[in-house]
Amino acid sequence: MQTALQSPFKDSSEGREADAILRSCVHCGFCLAACPTYRLLGDELDSPRGRIYLIKQLLEGQAVGAPTQLHLDRCLTCRACETACPSGVRYGRLLDIGRGLVEQRVPRGADQRLERWLLRRLVAEPRRFGLAVALGRALAPLLPRRLTARLPLRQAAPPWPKPQAAGRRMLALAGCAQSVATPATNAAAARVLARFGIELIEAPAAGCCGALDYHLGAHDAGLARARRNIDAWWPYLQQGAETIVMTASGCGAMVREYGLLLAQDPAYADKAERVAGATRDLGEVLLAEDRSPFAGIGAGRRIAFHAPCTLTHWQKASAAVETVLREADFELTPVVDSHLCCGSAGSYSILQPELAQRLRDDKLTALTAGEPEVIVTANIGCQLHLQRVSEVPVRHWIELLEASSSSRRRDQKSRGDCRKPGRRDGNPVTHGSARR
Fold this sequence. Notes:
This protein has 436 residues and is α/β, with parallel strands linked by helices. The chain contains 24 helices and 10 strands.
């Protein structure tokens, strides 16, 4: 694609980066079939190729207004188009740049500004979010259904394992909305990792990964959160923590881009690169361990796995989770169009409710077609979005793995079964290999 960027864009680092991305697009249109909003609306301006043209027009000095902002807002940032693109166009990064520039030039109405401000000030702050959830539950009989439907289900978390005096240590993200909405997730992850002699620790000073701010166009606020997390994690990495384990794929996708986002910050560029390089999704972490103790725990259980876009298209790591579940003998039911977004997409389900609901309905139809007993996923946003209307229970996959493992151990203990958990019928299980 030929470009002719105008000042001040052609002289800025973001402008030059956007120019390189634009030039890599060859107008082929492969992205259209992969785009959920184009499939729903049939408008090319609601496709990656159409949005690329809109951003190009902005950078070339043409006026932009509310229509441009609307088409960019409607993008889920699922990045399915990047998976489909034969030219490797970094559309997600281009969209972030475009949204940030449009946000500076097109004023929003008071209602939109208030809605986005509340999202960033409440959901991204666990203490405030926790108070809001508690208040919502207390006042639920008085509130309209559209509000109470968004309250997360009450969830009891299993106890964390006792700290180890010595051994391997990994970091978890503590200050996330997940800690309020689904507190069982990190607790279950800690219990599973303890089976491998790994202590999962949470750095108290860490908070929201910054994705909510950044993808709503508040780039400075998002990067400030990134710097705070780097400062919180850095001493632990210096003291030998192996990995930053992400149990929410949306957060993992953001943290893995810290190096890119802070590349122009001389005080944080190197640290951000190391933090990004040390970040792994929980499925990737377990894939590197000897998983034989979990063999057989899922035998006879049919489950559907919803692979979040941030795991599939951003991190390219959905296969790791599927491998762990299959090796534990869970039967994964087939899911048609598994690459398509469920409509959660961070704040999208709140800001674009009609499109999000249509996408969720389609996704639940695909997920339940194989008659699973439970749906599992790897991201808090997807979990809550699907959970609101699903008749089939929706859980984080690590909770299912931990609960099934604990149930088998209790059964063995009650029977006085002395066999090692990695053996069935007296024969060693060999399909899980140690890769430390």
